């Protein structure tokens, strides 16, 4: 499959590129800076990567030309401002990137018109399948708190600029599906984690702190509310589901991707502490506590299990161990640099 991936250099994008290569796809990567970061340096020379700013006015014309030239069979749209807390710092930028960027891609596809591609001796017109990666946060706060896992038909009730802009982008993509016949799939994943994730996200942040205590860089792990329960999926499982959607989902379908069961942050931290090579003190930091934290948020597991078939999900214990080991490697690497040793 000839596959475009936007946001290819991000946390999820890097795993998507690696999985697509393993599947045998012909991948074209797109990202803001147009160069692979250090963690993805092994992809340099394997996957073409070009800069893409979906908020720039000239982008639409450039994309029209490239769509007509490359004729991708599918586009996995991951480019986004993906941090909910950061979205409060600059809501207009979040809306420009998440909604405006998606609209720019949709308009380029519309103006490029259905693409002609060759299958054997015959030629066909088609829209590239567009898989828009949204968020389970679009459903907002569970009411009542012990309600069943969110499914695709539940109403949207976003509570921050990030999830609101994602919900709006979903509606825009579905409108292009209904009005123009676009082959669109909306995926709403719940939380995903794994090695290479930024410490701004809760499990990665805890794993980094545990590794820093082991390395003597800090004395304790500082956390917020550990009693909340969240639905975490390993990013390596999630991208396998995304790639399956590029081929097998139903037109216009909204897909919720979650495990349907959660883990308390207290249990996740206890597991990380159990993997450590020394006792790990923990301190509750009042600055990290939020009064509006829902106690439990889960996503319906049906679509994820359908997408992965008989392949078992990576256990959360394995994900946590891999995450901690990745941070250990990062910290060892930073400590061994000459500038750090000299200081």
Short description:
The chain has 343 residues and is α/β, with parallel strands linked by helices.
Task: Summarize the structure in words.
The structure is a single chain. The protein has 343 residues and is α/β, with parallel strands linked by helices. The chain has two domains: 2-193 and 232-257, 3-Layer(aba) Sandwich (Rossmann fold); 202-230 and 261-298 and 314-333, Alpha-Beta Complex (UDP-galactose 4-epimerase, domain 1), CATH 3.90.25.10. The chain has helices at 11-23, 59-70, 84-89, 91-112, 161-180, 202-214, 235-248, 265-275, 302-308, 316-335, 338-342, and strands spanning 2-6, 26-31, 49-51, 74-77, 115-119, 122-126, 129-133, 184-189, 192-193, 221-223, 229-230, 233-234, 254-257, 263-264, 282-284, 296-297. The longest helix is centred in the first third of the chain and has 22 residues, at 91-112. It starts with a strand and ends with a helix. Residues 142-161 are annotated as: Disordered. Pfam families: GDP_Man_Dehyd.
């Amino acid at each position: 499959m000839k596959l475009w991936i936007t946001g290819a250099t991000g946390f999820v994008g890097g795993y998507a590129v690696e999985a697509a290569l393993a599947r045998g796809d012909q991948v074209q990567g797109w990202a803001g800076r147009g160069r692979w970061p250090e963690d993805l340096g092994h992809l340099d020379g394997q996957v073409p990567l070009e800069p893409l700013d979906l908020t720039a006015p000239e982008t639409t014309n450039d994309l029209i030309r490239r769509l007509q030239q490359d004729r991708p069979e599918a586009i996995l749209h991951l480019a986004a401002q993906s941090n909910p807390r950061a979205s409060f710092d600059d809501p207009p930028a979040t809306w420009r990137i998440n909604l405006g960027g998606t609209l720019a891609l949709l308009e380029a596809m519309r103006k490029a018109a259905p693409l002609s591609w060759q299958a054997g001796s015959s030629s066909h017109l088609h829209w590239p399948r567009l898989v828009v990666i949204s968020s389970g946060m679009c459903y907002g706060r569970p009411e009542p708190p012990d309600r069943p896992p969110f499914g695709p038909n539940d109403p949207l009730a976003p509570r921050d600029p990030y999830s609101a802009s994602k919900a709006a982008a979903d509606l825009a993509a579905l409108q292009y599906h209904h009005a123009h016949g676009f082959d669109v799939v909306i995926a709403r994943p719940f939380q995903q984690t794994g090695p290479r994730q930024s410490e701004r996200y809760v499990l990665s942040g805890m794993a980094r702190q545990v590794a820093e205590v082991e390395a003597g860089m800090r004395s304790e792990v500082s956390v917020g509310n550990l009693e909340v329960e969240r639905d975490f999926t390993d990013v390596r499982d999630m991208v396998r589901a995304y790639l399956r959607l590029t081929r097998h989902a139903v037109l216009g379908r909204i897909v919720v991707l979650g495990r349907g069961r959660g883990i308390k942050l207290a249990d996740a931290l206890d597991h990380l502490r159990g993997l450590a090579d020394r006792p790990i003190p923990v301190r509750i930091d009042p600055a990290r506590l939020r009064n509006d934290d829902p106690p439990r948020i889960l996503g319906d597991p049906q679509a994820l299990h359908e997408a992965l078939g008989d392949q078992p999900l990576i256990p959360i214990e394995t994900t946590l161990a891999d995450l901690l080991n990745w941070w250990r490697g990062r910290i060892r690497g930073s400590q061994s640099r000459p500038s750090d040793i000299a200081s």
